[in-house]
Amino acid sequence: MSQTILVTGASGQLGRAVVRHLLESQGVAPASLIAVTRDPAKLADLAAKGVTVRAGDFKAADTLPAAFAGADKVLIISGADIGQRLPQHQAAVAAAVKAGASRIAYTSMPNPEPGNRVLFAPEHFGTEQAIKETGLPYTIFRNGWYQENLMLALPAAFASGSWYTSSGQGRIAHAARDDMAAAIAGALAADEGESVTYTLTGPEALTSDEIAARAANSLGKPLQVVHVTDEQLAEGLKAAGVPEAFIRLTVSFDTNTREGGFDLVTGDIEKLSGRAPAPIESFFKEYGSAILG
Questions:
Q1: Is residue 266 very low, low, confident or very high in pLDDT (cuts 50, 70, 90)?
Q2: Residue 155's pLDDT is what?
Q3: CA distance linking residue 156 with residue 28, whole number of Å
Q4: Three-state secondary structure call for residue 52
Q5: DSSP element (H, E) containing 86
Q6: Is 253 a residue whose pLDDT tops 80?
Q7: Is the pLDDT at 1 greater than 70, yes or no?
Q8: Which of 39, 219, 233, 268 is 20 to 30 A away from residue 189, measured at CA?
Q9: Residue 274's pLDDT band (boundaries 50, 70, 90)?
Q10: Closest C-alpha among 188, 201, 195, 275 to residue 8
């Protein structure tokens, strides 16, 4: 009998993609899937295919044990409430144990150990520790930065012609969200034994200058990178009306990049999904009109 795989956050972008790849790329039977979401109505299409859809909310820990019942493998996709996620994730881990899960999987971030400068790194590291303390086999996916995250900066940068950053010559190997989802699905569908940690990255680590040059070449519009200090970046974002919490998060991200915290490339996406991760030029081609407005 095949194991039952449960995916939390199944109505989110990553969760939906993981479920889709489990069904379509990995050939997992719908009856072997449980999709957990705060709003089951959003997954009516999956329910129609035979996927079990259940209500479960990280903000309401008492909903999780019933949502997780009968699951063999539980994928905990990290929540959206930055600053509040650790206790939510700990509750999800406890619910997975109570449900009798034989394996817990989790979407973390690269190198979340103490010393990482990204403000939410401790939430990921704490969740990883909570999972390890259960004694159950685990699969941790340390997801690199999505190519899609560039939409937070590039539209405004191209509009003004200047991309302000304090990332210096730090490098990031952005990967497409769908490539990460395909890799996660591949690992979940496999018969893994020992605990394992994967780091999911794109095929090439690039500096902001290199990303800007490739974006400008792909989109046919110039883009200048303006290197500033962390303090100058924060001041500029404040002047632009960006909320304080997002300013601190953005600066911490650039700091971590500058200090080499994201400078790594692995072959884990291709190993798990069987396909090479898409280059960054593919992202510019797909999102070009949205970037340029």
A1: very high
A2: 97
A3: 41
A4: strand
A5: helix 85-98
A6: yes
A7: no
A8: 39
A9: very high
A10: 188
Q: Which of 147, 140, 142 is nearest to 112 (CA)?
A: 142
Q: Which of 8, 57, 13, 61 is nearest to 33 (CA)?
A: 8
- 77 with 105: CB under 8 angstroms? no
Whole-number percent of the chain with pLDDT over 90: 97
Q: What is the pLDDT of residue 193?
A: 85
Report strand pairing: 224-227 vs 196-200.
unpaired
Report long-range pairs for 16-24 (Cβ below 8 Å, ≥24 apart): 17/177, 17/178, 17/181, 17/182, 18/75, 18/77, 18/181, 18/184, 18/185, 18/188, 19/46, 19/51, 20/181, 21/181, 21/182, 21/184, 21/185, 21/186, 21/273, 22/185, 22/188, 22/189, 23/49, 23/51
Sequence-distant (6+) residues with CB within 8 A of 59 are 81, 88
Q: Is residue 151 scored above 50 in pLDDT? A: yes
Alpha-carbon span 247 to 29, nearest angstrom: 44
Residue 236 CB contacts under 8 Å (≥ 6 apart), including other chains: 164, 228
Q: For the whole model, what pTM was predicted?
A: 0.96
Segment 122-139 mean pLDDT? 98
* Packing angle, helices 121-133 and 85-98, rounded to 10: 20
Could you give the CA distance from residue 140 to residue 76 in angstroms, rounded to a whole number?
A: 10
272-293 average pLDDT score: 97
- Residue 138 corresponds to which tokens in the numbers above? 């685990």
Among candidates 169, 158, 170, which has minimal Cα distance to 212? 158
